[in-house]
Amino acid sequence: MGDAVDAAVSSKLRWDVFLSFIGEDTCNTIVHSLYKLFDEQGIRAFRDDEDIDDWGMSRGDEMAPSLSPIDAIYDSAASIIILSPNYGSSRRCLEGLVKICELNRLILPVFYQVDPSNVRH
């Protein structure tokens, strides 16, 4: 029954997955590869990256100009958090992470060039 409920919730949301990362660490590597794979599989992914000016429209993506990463978090079935060396130093990333955790939806952490034992609550 959980799968049916999850599918119903997911179908009402704009995004299947929200990608949270800090661009300087990951934008041209893992994030680009993940986004491309998701696109090829028909998975709707929102990238929270530094190309988003003032939490608004992202260059090159087809998004509503008023859509912010916070809105996208609420409108995503799951989130992938790419924890990299500079992720924790980004106020924007951490504020987004708080919102993601508050929603109690599926969260997949990816440890990219960091040791998981170095990441604390």
UniProtKB/TrEMBL annotation:
PROSITE patterns hit by this protein: TIR
Pfam families on file? TIR
Keyword Mitochondrion in annotation: no
- One BP term from GO: signal transduction
Sequence ranges assigned to domain TIR in this UniProt record: 13-121
UniProt superkingdom: Eukaryota
Among its keywords, does the record have Zinc? no
Keywords assigned by UniProt, alphabetized: NAD
Q: Which PANTHER family match?
A: DISEASE RESISTANCE PROTEIN (TIR-NBS-LRR CLASS), TMV RESISTANCE PROTEIN N-LIKE
Question: What is the name attached to this protein's record?
Answer: TIR domain-containing protein
The organism is Acer saccharum
